[in-house]
Specification:
With about 425 residues, this protein is mainly alpha-helical. The longest helix is centred in the first third of the chain and has 31 residues. The protein has 20 helices and 2 strands. It has a two-stranded antiparallel ribbon. It has one domain. Helix content is about 70%, strand content about 0%.
């Protein structure tokens, strides 16, 4: 079998396995007895409501609040165009996410084959499948796969020399879920180190894409768009964050039950305990991303995809909100890591995913809210593992392939000057 045929066959088999995974997860959510399984897709009701209001002639952002960025809304609307009820919408939205999942598999297969040959492709796709299975209700029940694909594609294209396409894709991702825009941070540093003819191409494409998208967003919603920004600015300290985990652990040891409150459709520590830490999250995030960029420069600006993933992880783990589905963002970036660091990172990240699945949609979340010691310990263990993963990706040894490549970023496709 030729190299191309082997790659195609492996990719097709992986997609078929994920079709089964999606169907099985949908059936489990639909007919499972555990209440938290159904809660994993409660967001479908929000998406359906947003799309249905648009179908009735109301303008999103202008006539009603949508807390997500502009390009998230088409993800909600497209499935609604083909169905007339909520049951049908759940299926249609699941199919939409499956298409993004298939795109991720194709990108992963091509990425691994381009940098390591076809031999490791099946194993890496198996890792991706294990991650998806470990958090299946959240993979199927949220829209994180869509911005994940954009972030990974942007990193691959940008660092392969297809700067404009990478910058454009990162811009689209930033307009969908913000975090894909973090790819631009190491990419800007990388472009600055390129020959003069290459400098700024991707960055300009990124800036123009975000600017045009923002203009369209305000043209659609007017000043009401600012309500979406205020929605997130007003959020407190999420109970699953690194900061909240430490506070809960301190409270348990001190014999004090830390109160919490439900707001913005999520659980946060009450302002008396969480507001000051929440205010510190943004500068800590900025400092963490700066550490990533410094280490990227020290590495010789090689392994762009690796440091793009590190920037996303640094932002995620230091944020004031750390929802369990956010781990989906990291799937492809961990899968494609190679060498000593990649081997250990994949096992470490699997522990993170398994611990998260026990917390939510498992029973751990309710136990954290009930201030049970074991659940609080598990939450802090998960967060400590995430911090360890970040340190490993940042400071772990580079693979032989990365060390010998000329800052290629381990390209998804052969470099071009698009």
């Amino acid at each position: 079998m030729s190299r191309t045929s082997s790659l195609v066959a492996t990719t097709v088999v992986a997609i078929a396995v994920h079709v089964v995974l999606f169907v099985a997860t949908g059936l489990l959510i639909r007919y499972g007895s555990h209440p938290d399984l159904g809660a994993a897709t409660w967001s479908y009701g929000i998406y359906y409501d947003y799309a249905s209001q648009a179908m009735e002639g109301r303008v999103p952002y202008r006539d009603y609040l949508v807390e997500y960025p502009l390009l998230t809304f088409p993800l909600f609307l497209v499935p609604r165009l083909f169905v007339s009820d909520f049951a049908g919408y759940c299926i249609a939205f699941g199919v939409e996410m499956l298409l993004f999942d298939a795109a991720a598999i194709v990108l992963l297969a091509r990425q691994v084959a381009a940098t390591e040959g076809t031999g490791p492709v099946a194993g890496r796709l198996a890792w991706y499948t294990v991650y998806c299975a470990s958090l299946a209700p959240l993979v199927v029940g949220r829209f994180e796969l869509a911005p994940m694909v954009l972030a990974f594609a942007a990193a691959g294209w940008w660092f392969s020399g297809r700067n404009r396409l990478g910058g454009f894709t990162a811009g689209l991702g930033a307009l969908m879920k913000v975090f894909p825009g973090l790819v631009a941070a190491p990419a800007l540093v990388w472009e600055a180190a390129r020959p003069r003819a290459w400098r700024g191409r991707g960055t300009l494409a990124f800036v123009l894409t975000v600017a045009i998208g923002a203009a369209g967003w305000f043209a659609l919603g007017g000043a009401h768009v600012l309500e979406s920004f205020r929605y997130h600015a007003a959020r407190g300290l999420g109970i699953e964050t690194v900061y909240a985990g430490v506070v809960l652990a301190w409270g348990k040891l001190a014999g004090t039950e830390i109160p919490w409150v439900i707001e913005h459709r999520a659980v946060h520590l009450v302002p008396q305990w969480g507001s000051r830490l929440a205010a510190l999250a943004a500068p800590i995030q900025a400092a963490a991303i700066l550490v990533v960029l410094v280490q990227f420069v020290r590495s010789g600006c090689t392994s762009g995809i690796r440091f793009s993933g590190a920037a996303i992880l640094a932002s995620l783990v230091t944020a004031k909100v750390l929802s369990p589905q956010y781990l989906v963002w990291l799937f492809p970036f961990v899968v494609v890591l190679n060498g000593w660091t990649g081997h250990r990172a994949r096992w470490l990240f699997l522990l993170v995913c398994l611990a998260t699945s026990v917390i939510y949609p498992g029973p751990g979340f309710a136990q954290v809210l009930d201030h049970q010691g074991l659940a609080i310990f598990l939450l802090n263990l998960r967060n400590a593992l995430l911090l360890t993963l970040g340190a490993l990706i940042l400071f772990g040894p580079a693979s032989a392939e990365s060390s010998s490549s000329a800052a290629s970023g381990e390209a998804i496709v052969p470099a071009s000057r698009t």
